[in-house]
């Protein structure tokens, strides 16, 4: 079992220590949170038993967030929720609920605003357990077996602002039409029938449809979403109709495209010339895609991600011309020219995780003096680059996984970066004992030495 988040209530030291081994109350902060991450049934039952013993009703009533993903919910655990009337966020992912359990939970948690039921083997009957007028702001029902939405869906959750229905066999979303407060809709991985989108979503700002719309037909309705700012598409055939819609009818600030299929070189020049577009993410595109799109196109982007692509010298030259860039993510890409030499931008974030660079691919790093976040996982860092990193004294986050650096080198790194707050050093040869000494010396620093889900120092 991995208990990964923390009890942030100002409970007595004995409660913090008994339940989570977090030590003294200095680890406890203002907002009460309990999080049990993917426990097995026996261990999670023990945690829940301790929860009942270790906290009195007054302390339970202060809880705002509770995550019991994967834990067994029996009558005793459901009864425990009676003592948490102030709960605002509840996560029950990977739990098979019995009929009536959800109705009971929703009836006894009047302040619930965030509910996650991902991968709970639910179908469309789940909505029969929703009381009308539920005040949820966020609802996650991804990776279930829901085949349809009820006609009165908007009346069931009239305040809903975020909805995730990814990986459900739902072909028809038209019953969402007119949702007044829905700002974000995730509907990824909806393979199968031709998707029908709502004809009117007046507040929608973010729409994710990766692996859900293979053709342009369902997308024409997007012109009726006046506030749409972010669109994510993937695994569809790009054509002039889609390009015209996105470049001339929508006012996007952020666009994400994955594995777009084209018959001719990818043409996005009209879109790239739009000053509104601030963020562009391209994943798994053909090697000739970006140069054609970017030829002679000015760049107004502030955030750019070109992941798992082979980037030629013309493509790199266009990236370098993006003078307003603040964030650049080239994860997993192959770059055949120096990336930073001659660049017009001053970055705050640079991600080069598992990027294939030429030998001098990081030359020019010393000019990026405003960097706050640098991810160079799995890259071979030569001594000159290490010396440059020591001079990036505004860094707050640094990922240097799988670097064969000694504890002395790590100490040198930390001493040179006074503003560093997070260090990822997975696979480091530094011993656990040395990491503990480092943590004692730099108490403000969070150090991650294991894969996510493993222990942090």
Can you give a write-up of this model?
By secondary structure, this protein is an alpha/beta fold. The chain has a domain at 1-121: Leucine-rich repeat, LRR (right-handed beta-alpha superhelix). It has 13 helices and 20 strands. It has helices at residues 13-20, 41-54, 57-61, 75-80, 101-108, 153-156, 240-249, 269-272, 289-294, 313-320, 383-389, 407-416, 432-441; strands at 33-35, 65-67, 89-91, 114-116, 138-140, 162-164, 184-186, 206-210, 230-234, 254-258, 279-283, 303-307, 310-311, 327-329, 334-335, 349-351, 373-375, 397-399, 422-424, 446-448. It has an 18-stranded parallel beta sheet, with no helix packed on it. A two-stranded parallel ribbon has the order 13-15. Helix 1 (13-20) packs antiparallel against helix 2 (41-54). The longest helix is centred in the N-terminal third of the chain and has 14 residues, at 41-54. It starts with 12 loop residues before the first helix and ends in a 9-residue tail after the last strand.
